[in-house]
Backbone:
């Protein structure tokens, strides 16, 4: 049996991160079905922080999707803010993204609220620590196995398919309880304390400066096999096989403490191809 570790750098407000993870999950399922002995291999998913909007102020309530999208379109257009044109562009991009989403079983609501994702990343990092601690202490039947992945996927669902405000600590605390991370009141108190903020800031800084990442998602298999952007299932499957067999793929330098590019519909951040930046 092989344990294949996949490090994913992402931001909870990146739609291609959500779709890319679904493509990865499909590739993993296919690998375990068709690769000789693949059903005996296990996958460990580790999530890392990236800020699509690093200057977003912490503690400020999120902005509705349509409003933030219009702001980004104005910025990209050099200040041109004709309301009718903006609405037409926004509608076209939402239709494109909705069509992509349906291919992945995602019903984009466009009701989520954008803002700083620092607290969301703190929660994700906390889930990762709790999962790792539980794994070390467990002598079998680890109830927190996959906890971090559950937290991230629920964040994606609540933001992209619901109306979650990504900046809301109350929302994050409720999600933590729902996914088994901890009791709502305890998690809310932890979020209010600010604990873990420096660590996710440093991880996000490293990704941009040392890792030279311009966008997300980025997937790194076994520390060396790198996929930038939400590639298709076949590309993920090939990378998994290479990671299993020790083959080489084009890699990127990896930070020892942490583990895009592309075309595609725009969102509140600039999304082109299969990633957001």
Residues:
């Amino acid at each position: 049996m092989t344990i294949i570790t996949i490090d994913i750098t992402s931001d909870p407000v990146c739609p291609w991160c959500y779709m890319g993870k679904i493509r990865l999950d499909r590739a993993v399922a296919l690998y375990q079905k068709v690769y000789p002995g693949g059903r005996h291999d296990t996958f460990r998913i580790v999530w890392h922080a990236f800020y699509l909007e690093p200057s977003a102020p912490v503690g400020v309530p999120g902005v509705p999707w349509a409003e933030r999208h219009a702001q980004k379109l104005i910025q990209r257009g050099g200040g041109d803010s004709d309301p009718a044109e903006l609405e037409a562009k926004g509608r076209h991009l939402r239709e494109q993204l909705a069509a992509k989403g349906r291919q992945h079983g995602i019903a984009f609501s466009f009701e989520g609220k954008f803002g700083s994702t620092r607290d969301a990343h703190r929660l994700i990092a906390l889930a990762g620590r709790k999962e790792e601690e539980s794994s070390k202490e467990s002598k079998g039947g680890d109830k927190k196995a996959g906890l971090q992945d559950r937290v991230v996927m629920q964040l994606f669902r609540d933001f992209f398919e619901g109306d979650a405000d990504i900046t809301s600590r109350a929302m994050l605390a409720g999600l933590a309880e729902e996914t088994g991370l901890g009791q709502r009141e305890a998690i809310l108190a932890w979020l209010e304390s600010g604990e873990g903020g420096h660590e996710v800031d440093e991880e996000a800084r490293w990704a941009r400066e040392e890792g030279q990442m311009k966008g997300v998602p980025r997937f790194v298999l076994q520390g060396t096999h790198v996929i930038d952007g939400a590639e298709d299932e076949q590309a993920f499957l090939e990378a998994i096989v290479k990671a299993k067999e020790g083959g080489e793929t084009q890699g990127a330098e990896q930070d020892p403490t942490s583990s895009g590019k592309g075309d595609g519909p725009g969102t509140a951040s600039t999304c082109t191809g299969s990633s957001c930046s």
User: Anything to note?
Assistant: The chain is about 50% helix and 10% strand.
